[in-house]
């Protein structure tokens, strides 16, 4: 819930309160410096950019620059842009009823100038929250100048106003975000003639509409996102417009595995699926994160198109959904994801990856191989040095264990039987609880690791439920 708005409701009351008007960029600079000095978070929810992207962004904001964030898909550009509104003052005064948020001290539109002259200190004042001072538009080929800048409103003309009257103008998204932050996502997709309409906004800070002798000195921070031009075939940023942005900032995918995991934990939504508690153990999240990084680094994948952070997010949510499905079919109370839920990730994510032409027909095989590598790498890090002799001893006697995505946790534990050192195994995997689901997840991961390290064999039964038998 938003706090109560400030009490001033007229221009006179606002003057008496000692309110100081600051332009948007000065307002952002002031609040950013205050947070820097206090050591407070500046861009909440942004992971992995602390030492790379954010210092450049902070310098650009302190310099008062409009800016472009340049990076491949799924690098958090839009998420980062949306945090900029949090650097605005919580409340700002506007002329009540103004379409473009004129400041009562310096109105700029025809309506507000007239009202200010008529009412003087009784000019009505309203308060705008910072959440309402952020505007955003996804650039598409059908975007028009009217959408962004404005156009003549035929309804106002029909009401009796003349075409020369500035009040017949219907303002577009940019003027309506006056005294705020406006973002254009995927700017190169905007037609070149539409990009030209933004030149005056960036250079002269005003708008021109249908030849009107209309000057509106806008107070706005303009931010755009774009994919690197070397593979953006849909369009480009025209050179004069690019020159008018003060800063170009490159984004990137998480550089460290830890950042990838932090992003997954922050963004993945599988805490409670329709009343069924879903748990994805840490080692499975690590597998998904490693898998994502291996796909990005693979020579079989077109590196120019990138592998979005949404790839890992969708993978983790698919794993959780597999556990919930098993719980629904088998009657388990708590859905805990296991290794058997991982294979479903490959077909689910296949459409999110652009492969090299030479890999045509092998796409699924490539992802399956990389997923196995991710499992093996995670096993080596977590359980590679663990004592698994107690588990292996069960197979040395010729026993086998059948597992699969529809085998309940309790049934898998029954099939494996008592395992010496299970508690230590779970502890190495960071599992604090002792539920059957967690124990089964730890044991199945150990079995898969023994198979991948060639200390056990694994044979699929050929069923659609991914059932497989582990044996020596």
Describe the structure.
The protein is an alpha/beta fold. It has two domains: 11-250, P-loop containing nucleotide triphosphate hydrolases (Rossmann fold, 3-Layer(aba) Sandwich), CATH 3.40.50.300; 257-471, no CATH class. It is 41% helix and 13% strand. It is built from 20 helices and 15 strands. A five-stranded parallel β-sheet has the order 4-7-8-1-9. Strands 10-11-12 form a three-stranded mixed β-sheet. A hairpin with a 7-residue loop joins β14 (457-460) and β15. The longest helix has 22 residues, at 309-330. The model has no long low-confidence stretch (mean pLDDT 89).
Please describe the topology of this protein:
Blueprint: H1 11-16, H2 24-38, H3 53-62, E1 67-70, H4 77-82, E2 91-95, H5 110-119, E3 125-129, E4 134-138, H6 145-148, E5 150-152, H7 154-158, E6 169-171, H8 173-176, E7 180-185, H9 192-197, H10 199-203, E8 220-226, H11 239-244, E9 247-250, H12 257-267, E10 272-273, E11 276-279, H13 282-297, H14 309-330, E12 335-336, H15 345-349, H16 363-383, H17 389-396, E13 401-403, H18 409-416, H19 422-428, H20 436-452, E14 457-460, E15 468-471
């Amino acid at each position: 819930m938003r706090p109560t708005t400030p009490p001033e409701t007229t221009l006179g009351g606002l003057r008496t309160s000692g309110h100081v008007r600051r332009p948007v960029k000065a307002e952002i600079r002031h609040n950013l410096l205050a947070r820097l000095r206090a050591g407070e978070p500046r861009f909440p929810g942004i992971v992995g950019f602390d030492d790379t992207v954010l210092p450049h962004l902070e310098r650009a904001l302190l310099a008062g620059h409009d800016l472009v964030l340049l990076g491949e898909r799924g690098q958090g550009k839009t998420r980062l842009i949306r945090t900029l509104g949090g650097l605005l003052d919580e409340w700002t005064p506007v002329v009540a009823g103004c379409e473009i948020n004129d400041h009562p001290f310096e109105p700029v539109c025809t309506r507000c100038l007239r009202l200010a002259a008529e009412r003087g200190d009784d000019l009505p004042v309203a308060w705008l929250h910072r959440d309402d001072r952020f505007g955003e538009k996804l650039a598409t080929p059908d975007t028009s100048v009217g959408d962004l800048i404005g156009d003549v409103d035929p309804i106002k003309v029909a009401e009796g106003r003349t075409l020369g009257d500035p009040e017949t103008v219907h303002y577009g998204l940019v003027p309506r975000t006056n005294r705020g932050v406006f973002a254009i996502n995927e700017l190169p997709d905007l037609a070149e003639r539409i990009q030209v309409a933004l030149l005056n906004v960036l250079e002269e800070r005003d708008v021109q509409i249908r030849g009107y002798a209309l000057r509106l000195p806008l107070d706005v921070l303009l931010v755009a996102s774009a994919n690197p031009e070397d593979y953006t075939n849909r369009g480009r940023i025209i050179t004069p417009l690019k020159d008018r942005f003060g800063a170009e900032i490159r984004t990137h995918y998480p550089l460290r595995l830890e950042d990838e995991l932090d992003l997954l934990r922050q963004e993945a939504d599988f805490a409670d699926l329709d009343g069924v508690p879903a748990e994805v153990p840490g080692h499975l999240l690590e597998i998904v994160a490693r898998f994502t990084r291996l796909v990005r680094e693979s020579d079989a994948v077109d590196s120019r198109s990138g592998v979005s952070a949404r790839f890992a997010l969708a993978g983790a949510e698919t794993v959780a959904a597999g556990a919930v499905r098993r719980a629904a079919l088998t009657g388990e109370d708590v859905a805990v994801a296991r290794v058997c839920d991982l294979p479903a990730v490959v077909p689910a994510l296949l459409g999110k990856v652009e492969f090299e032409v030479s890999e045509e027909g092998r796409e699924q095989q490539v992802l399956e191989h990389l997923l196995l590598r991710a499992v093996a790498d995670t096993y080596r890090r977590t359980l590679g040095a663990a004592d698994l002799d107690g588990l292996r001893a069960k197979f040395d006697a010729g026993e086998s264990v059948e597992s699969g995505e529809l085998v309940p946790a309790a049934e898998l534990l029954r099939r494996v039987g008592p395992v010496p050192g299970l508690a230590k195994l779970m502890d190495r995997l960071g599992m604090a609880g002792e539920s059957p689901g967690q124990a089964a997840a730890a044991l199945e991961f150990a079995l898969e690791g023994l198979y991948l390290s060639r200390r056990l064999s694994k044979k699929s039964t050929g069923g659609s439920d991914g059932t497989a038998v582990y044996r020596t």
